[in-house]
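Changelog-adjacent note: as of this version, every example in the card shows the full chain rather than a window. The one below runs 585 residues end to end.
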Amino acid sequence: MDAVLSALDYVVIAAMLLISCGIGVLFAVRAGPKQTSNDYFLGSQDVPVIAVVLSISATILSAVTFIGTPAEVYLYGPTYGLTALSRIHVPIITSIFFVPVYYRLKVVTIYQYIGMRFNDTVRYAVIFIRIISGFLFMGVMMYAPALALSLATGLSLQFSILSVGLICTFYTSIGGIKAVIWTDVFQACAMLIGAVVMVVAGTVKIGGPAEGWSRAVEGGRGELVDFRADLTVRFTIWSGAIGASFIWLSNGVARQEMVQRYNACRTERGARVAACLGLIGTAVIELLAVAVGMTIFAYYYTCDPLKSGRIGRPDQIVPFFIMDIFSSYPGIPGLLIGCVFCAALSSVSSALNGVVATAGQDVIRKLKPGLSDFKYTSLAKLISFGFGILTIMLAFLATMLSGGILQTIFSIAGITGGPICGVIILGMFFPRANSMGAMSGLVGGVAVGVIQYVGSQVFSSRSPPLPLSISECEISVNMTQLTSYTSDQYTTSITGITGGFSSASTLPPTNSDSHAFFRISYLYLQALTTISCVLIGIAASHATSWNDPKVADPKFLTPFIARLYAGSKNNHNSENTEQMYLRKI
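Full-length structure tokens:
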């Protein structure tokens, strides 16, 4: 691509990165040399609700939304927006049934809860799974902005990964959770501004919203809702209502980063409000990302940069669009590329701080219970730096991924996050569930996820994208590169591409066959693994002697379930400590 960043663009990018670093330094200085572990991991439980709300939104979405979602919408249409609209009930469920348990127990990690509710065997099995998936997640998320910088500036991808990784590691290691949360606030605002600028400028370029929608309809992207009851169709109303609900339930209740934010609030009510509004905020930002994707398609609707060979993979479409329409406005490309950096930095820093909290609270505290708080906090900072370097190394592996960023992230989350969410549901909603059941459910859920994911790769379950056109491109098309892209990455037919939209690229077939299980939409993967974990856990608990609900500790149960079992206790026992606890619910 001929367009390059100007000197002013570099200044803007550097300024945005320095702001992130500066926030980390500010909170490290304010905490002083006597920063406690409570300061470092929970922000002394003194973080304003609005900051936690923005931090939750930025942490969950990040570069997955800024780069991955527009690319997904560009290829498959706006029906992905259903995942944002159809999960509106999830924030309410999270804030009512899960947050109170975490907040009242004052846990630093979700694994502490799992250990108290079941046992340390289940606790460390979950930690093992989560740490592996956490590092994979951070590696992919660090790769995303590095890709943007590499495409926009011509710098090598390797150098870009190092730049992003070292900056993130620096401010996360020295500042702790407060630095991460307040940096998230800045980064969330930057993401919103960047997305709005792209939508507005792109809409003006194409001639207004009406023209944009007309192009979307002509390009086969006028369908907003798909009611087909076919699990193999990539996006339908059902994959949004069911699959996406489980994805975001897991994000809200089974991610270490979220629990830290809930418990960093000043009050339980504040934690509930932050959880509810934060998760709603993710839906708002995702809808904005859908608008970005549709705007980009309308802009390139007769000259697709993928088929024309100007870019090599869908994940590059956003930075390519930025440089294509803003290169003549110095400073604007820098602002938008800086937003991509902010998007990834927020999620990587949050995940890094969460992994360090796990290593500290669930490992170091167990091995060295007598370690002073000062030494413990100092060691946590060193571990944070070491984990950051490891993440940089894993980011290089992400460059070899063959699929899109969004699908990669959801697949990782589905295989590991779903079963962990299932274990937490077993703990909070099923007083009879025991540790054997929890362990069996965890292993079974992961096994189901791995089998489905591996099968989907073997039996080529990738869905072909909607029609793309190069009918008005002013450059010659490299047919070798075109064939390689379409067959190897998204199995798109190239029939008829030289004149208008290809009618051969349609929605995935709906016929059933013996491999249908492996062709289900990736949005269902987390629902599949969560439900498998719960069902296997209940069956295994029953087979290995149910827990007696009369002796279940209500502080480990969701308030609604705790009240139900309190009623049965009151028929046999006088008021006791547990019933006094229930009156606080």
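Structural remarks: Residues 157-206 form the longest helix (50 residues).
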